[in-house]
Amino acid sequence: MKKKIFAVTLAALMGLSSLTAFATEANTGATEGIQADEEFYAKADLSVLEGKKIGITIQDLKNPYWAGVMSALETVLTDAGAEYTILGCNQNAIDQQGQIENFAANGCDLIMVHPQDPAGADDALGMVREQYPDIKLMCWDDPLENTDANWILDNTYLGSVIGEMAAEFINEHFTEDNKAQVIVIGKADTPVLVERENGIKAGLEAAAGKYEIVATNYGIEPLEAQEGVETTLQAYPDVKVVAGVGAGAMIGADEALNIHTGGEIPEDMGVFTTDVTMQQLEQLADPTYPAKGIIGFEGSDKDTAEACAKMYALILADNVGAKNVFRGVSRFTEETVQSVIDGMTK
Question: What is the pTM of this model?
Answer without folding.
Answer: 0.75
